[in-house]
């Protein structure tokens, strides 16, 4: 397989695959195929793709033989990191499963236009979303995935995300995005959590803006965050003034504070607030303590955004926001969340009681 120096494979011009069959679902690719020409002929009518390992063939007999013998027929590769309500997420290391990573990338490229598929799969982790029918424990379906660079200089928590076309419009993208933030939150040890790799596709941008807006709305309305790495004191949108029993009708926070509380980048917070019609920045005349740096900012005035909770409620109602987070904390398993020592456990119980 020819790759450029950077490990990227460019799309040949003028190749088109007519249909793809994933398991027993037939649908059309959105983009030109980059499958190797010696294996997938130009303008092939039908490409059969294994729904478990993404191996492919234009020959249905070959495909049938594989389907009966697929090594991942019963269990996906990798380690299960999340399992709740029939949906599970498996972490697959591209180093350990190179062929799986390459075949998944080839298939995904049929539906991801803006990103060049990376074939240096060893540097990526793949998180595949599966569903197991409660009435059929014999097998499972892969519904989509996201990839993540093992070492991202920009602290990206996600490189590519795709829910396969037959499974779209079921809020599954939000589930995967939520999982990506949870995992990077636990990984970050209080450092910046980051966000998806930019630039986003048009569809990706739309999906993320909605995801971020919902995340902020849940945080402002419920005080819940998507991260567990933060100090509980920093998870409040703002403090109720001492001596005051009633919460003020308006609360003030910096955009950075909101980012800290939700585990989101400041730029993503601003994008989301703008989309919600809640971004009305003012410049603070006084110095404020910055949560991010832990020191007073004496150089530049901080940007303050004032949000009325009733406006957040209005947005939530208009957009049919489900207050419950799509990701269930109790669904994580294996290495996630990291084990805590009995000492730390005692402390966390104490702080909860307080
Ligand atoms: Zn297979």
From TrEMBL:
<dbReference type="InterPro" id="IPR050603">
    <property type="entry name" value="MYST_HAT"/>
</dbReference>
<dbReference type="GO" id="GO:0005634">
    <property type="term" value="C:nucleus"/>
</dbReference>
<feature type="region of interest" description="Disordered">
    <location>
        <begin position="279"/>
        <end position="301"/>
    </location>
</feature>
<keyword id="KW-0007">Acetylation</keyword>
<dbReference type="Pfam" id="PF17772">
    <property type="entry name" value="zf-MYST"/>
</dbReference>
<feature type="active site" description="Proton donor/acceptor">
    <location>
        <position position="197"/>
    </location>
</feature>
<comment type="similarity">
    <text>Belongs to the MYST (SAS/MOZ) family.</text>
</comment>
<dbReference type="Pfam" id="PF01853">
    <property type="entry name" value="MOZ_SAS"/>
</dbReference>
<dbReference type="GO" id="GO:0006355">
    <property type="term" value="P:regulation of DNA-templated transcription"/>
</dbReference>
<dbReference type="GO" id="GO:0046972">
    <property type="term" value="F:histone H4K16 acetyltransferase activity"/>
</dbReference>
<keyword id="KW-0012">Acyltransferase</keyword>
<keyword id="KW-0808">Transferase</keyword>
<dbReference type="GO" id="GO:0008270">
    <property type="term" value="F:zinc ion binding"/>
</dbReference>
<dbReference type="InterPro" id="IPR040706">
    <property type="entry name" value="Zf-MYST"/>
</dbReference>
<dbReference type="InterPro" id="IPR002717">
    <property type="entry name" value="HAT_MYST-type"/>
</dbReference>
<keyword id="KW-0863">Zinc-finger</keyword>
<feature type="domain" description="MYST-type HAT">
    <location>
        <begin position="12"/>
        <end position="317"/>
    </location>
</feature>
<keyword id="KW-0862">Zinc</keyword>
<comment type="function">
    <text>Catalytic component of the NuA4 histone acetyltransferase (HAT) complex which is involved in epigenetic transcriptional activation of selected genes principally by acetylation of nucleosomal histones H4, H3, H2B, H2A and H2A variant H2A.Z. Acetylates histone H4 to form H4K5ac, H4K8ac, H4K12ac and H4K16ac, histone H3 to form H3K14ac, and histone H2A to form H2AK4ac and H2AK7ac. The NuA4 complex is involved in the DNA damage response and is required for chromosome segregation. The NuA4 complex plays a direct role in repair of DNA double-strand breaks (DSBs) through homologous recombination.</text>
</comment>
<feature type="region of interest" description="Disordered">
    <location>
        <begin position="228"/>
        <end position="261"/>
    </location>
</feature>
<dbReference type="InterPro" id="IPR016181">
    <property type="entry name" value="Acyl_CoA_acyltransferase"/>
</dbReference>
<keyword id="KW-0539">Nucleus</keyword>
<keyword id="KW-0805">Transcription regulation</keyword>
<dbReference type="InterPro" id="IPR036388">
    <property type="entry name" value="WH-like_DNA-bd_sf"/>
</dbReference>
<keyword id="KW-0804">Transcription</keyword>
<protein>
    <recommendedName>
        <fullName>histone acetyltransferase</fullName>
        <ecNumber>2.3.1.48</ecNumber>
    </recommendedName>
</protein>
<dbReference type="GO" id="GO:0035267">
    <property type="term" value="C:NuA4 histone acetyltransferase complex"/>
</dbReference>
<keyword id="KW-0479">Metal-binding</keyword>
């Amino acid at each position: 397989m020819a790759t450029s120096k950077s490990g990227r494979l460019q799309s040949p011009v003028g190749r088109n695959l007519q249909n793809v069959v994933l398991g027993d679902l037939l649908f059309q690719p959105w983009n030109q195929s980059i499958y190797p020409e010696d294996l997938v002929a130009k303008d092939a009518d039908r490409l059969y793709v294994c729904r478990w390992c993404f191996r492919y063939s234009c020959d249905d007999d070959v495909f049938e033989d594989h389907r009966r013998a697929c090594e991942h027929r019963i269990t996906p590769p990798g380690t299960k990191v999340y399992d709740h309500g029939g949906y599970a997420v498996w972490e697959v290391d591209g180093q350990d499963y190179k062929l799986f990573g390459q075949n998944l990338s080839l298939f995904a490229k049929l539906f991801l236009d803006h990103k060049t598929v990376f074939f240096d799969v060893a540097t990526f982790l793949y998180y595949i979303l599966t569903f197991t029918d409660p009435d059929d424990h014999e097998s499972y379906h892969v519904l989509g995935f996201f990839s993540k660079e093992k070492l991202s200089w920009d602290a990206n928590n996600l490189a590519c995300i795709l829910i396969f076309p037959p499974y779209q419009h079921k809020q599954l993208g939000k589930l995967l995005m939520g999982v990506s933030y949870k995992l990077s939150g636990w990984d970050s040890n209080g450092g910046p959590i980051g966000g998806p790799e930019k630039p986003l596709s048009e569809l990706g941008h739309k999906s993320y803006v909605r995801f971020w807006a919902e995340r902020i709305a849940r945080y402002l309305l419920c005080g819940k965050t998507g991260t567990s790495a933060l100090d509980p004191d920093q998870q409040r949108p703002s403090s109720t003034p001492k001596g005051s029993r009633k919460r003020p009708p308006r609360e003030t926070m910096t955009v950075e504070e909101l980012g800290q509380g939700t585990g989101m980048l400041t730029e993503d917070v601003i994008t989301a607030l703008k989309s919600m019609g809640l971004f009305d920045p003012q410049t603070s005349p006084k110095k404020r303590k910055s949560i991010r740096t832990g020191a007073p900012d004496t150089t530049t005035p901080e940007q303050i955004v004032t949000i009325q909770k009733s406006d957040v409620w209005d947005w939530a109602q208009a957009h049919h926001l489900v207050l419950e987070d799509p990701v269930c904390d109790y669904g994580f398993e294996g290495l996630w969340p990291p084990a805590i020592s009995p000492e730390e456990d005692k402390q966390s119980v104490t702080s909860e009681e307080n």
